[in-house]
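note to self: dont lose this again. the chain is below, predicted strucutre after it. 304 aa total, dont forget to put it in the shared folder this time
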Amino acid sequence: MAVDAARADEGFTSAGATRVLHAACRAVGLDDRDAELVRFGENALFRLASVPVVVRIARGKEWLVTARKEVAVARWLAAESFSAARVVEDVEQPLLVDGHPVTFWHLIVESNRKATYGELGGILRDLHRLTVPVGLVLPSFDPFGKQELRIDRAPIPEDDRVFLRKRWRELRDQFGELSFETPKGPVHGDAHVQNLMVDSQGQVILIDFEAFCFDHPEWDLMVTATEHHSLGWQTGEQYADFVRAYGRDLYDWPGYDTLRRLQEFGMTTWLMQNVREDERTATEYRRRIAGLRDDDGPRDWRPW
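---
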């Protein structure tokens, strides 16, 4: 379903996303008054005040296919009774507004605690054991799919752009040499602990299916492994809980270093899209690009 509207603004900002929110809610009959922007990153997420719904707005029409996949995955996981985010079923979606795919999700009322790394390991273990139904067509994991667009469009210095394009080519060559031993199956694709929520009943819920795919489980394990071994974002005890719950430490795999470099590259290009939002984001981008330029140096990156 598409909505005709004024020409999309150049770039993607929180102000532009708010205008898309107004048009999308009008199109489906939802009241967006007093809506709250709860996150602005790869997507803009708004919480409606009138009903328990979260509106998710993607960066551009290039992500329409991805939005359709997210809705299909959510419906499959609901049919499996898997603990995951649920789409609003009485709204036709995804909606395309001003070139931005829009989806509508049931609000998860959070508890006072955050999910643990042991819970992340457990939910990934359970996810990887599921069988994808025949009718659900999922792509392979593509660590490069968004990178060219990000590098081309981000408001960064030209020498950074040249460096990132060179690193992108190097990583593609290293990726081609990877050899996996595990069978393919459902993979979340962005499996960090922030993509788990704990609801008011204490249930741990998996969210954000944008990178969901059919591929090797190592792609899900690389996130926490990199955050721990390279960035030091978890304590030894937290990481041990993750490994114990899942049953494997990716650090022991020969391909870990390639996946680590891919993960750090993606974390940097993801953040650089929003360097104009505020100085805090710009400062962290500069910290990360400096780290990429010194591949063997220490990482003092901040969680985002």
